[in-house]
Write a structure and sequence with these properties.
Layout (H helix, E strand, L loop, with lengths): L2 E11 L10 E2 L6 E11 L2 E8 L4 H6 L3 H14 L6 E3 L2 E3 L5 E7 L10 H4 L1 H14 L3 E5 L12 H17 L4 E4 L3 H10 L3 E4 L9 H8 L3 E4 L17 H18 L7 E4 L8 H9 L12 E2 L5 H5 L10 H13 L4 E4 L2 H20 L7
Parallel strand pairs: 7-8, 7-14, 8-9, 9-10, 10-11, 11-12, 13-14
Antiparallel strand pairs: 1-3, 2-3, 3-4, 5-6
Amino acid sequence: MTQQIYIRPIGFAPGPQSEHGNAIRLAGGMVHAGRFAVILRRGGAVVERWLAAPDTIPSVLGQLPDAVGAEAEAQWANLTLAHPPLELGTRSVRLDQPQAMGILNVTPDSFSDGGQFLEDRGAGQEHAASMVEAGAAILDIGGESTRPGAEPVWEGDEIERVVPTIEACAAMGAAVSVDTRKAAVMEAALDAGAHLVNDVSGLTHDPRSAEVVARAGCPVVIMHTPNAGANLHGGGSYENVVFDVFDTLRDRRDAALEAGIEARNIVLDPGIGFGKALGESLALINALPLFHALGHPLLLGASRKRIVGALDNEVPAGERLGGSLTLALAGMNAGVQLLRVHDVRETVQARNVWRGLRDQALTDFADLPA
């Protein structure tokens, strides 16, 4: 019977001194973890769960069945792995603190902006410049809506939508990501100056996508969705959404590596809201620290999504700032490196205050004995 192992950080500290040094710096960022659940799953069911700290993890891992021992050791090493910066053209995006990825949709049917940036290219470019000025490390440009019920877009139309905006943003010196699941759009976008591919299908929709990314040598975001077809929101059926998404992302990561994509260029995204019910998306956000065990930077895309509306009387997308910031802070507290957001200035401000608290915690020894 198949066995899987998972090491989930469950106890966090403001700084290592709070645990007398018995804490790790999670994924090389500003979050410290001192307690971990080591979870053994067999045939889809959890059969054992151990609690450990950094000083006891070796003895816990030594008790594990041989079939999962190597995987457990790799996950523990990944939890402490400091990721190098993402190299995006002339820009180097550091991953030792959360970074904002600003959303720019050039679609007629975006759930958030209603197509205003497709109809008015100048307004779109001004918005892009304002996001960079507000602190966006990356601009994510998409020409196909992925909201529930959206119609697929022919690749030629998608190219016509995104290429002029990518060229304009690249010309202003911004680091640019293209949000697409089509290889032809990826190629056109990269030729136009994009530096990163953000594929909501996890490189499964188009059989040429992995080849395009590998050949370009660019970073790629591999997102989880249960359905690579036209309906990205269909087909979600999970025994345990957290472990099932973890396993699927690991498989898609491994397929990307086999296709020639370098490990340092892979970013993982659990796909909040894509083929997940409200409770499943909330469970994934609560479990975000676990996904560092896969050994790659993480992206959280929850800005203005229905998860906020569902918890607040179905308020429209434009009135979801408070909930979006709450979810962004949940990502920061989980050590997520990239936050894909609509409201860049507010998110960056929240990040800067959050970082101030973290920095102070590293130098605050007032509660320790002399």
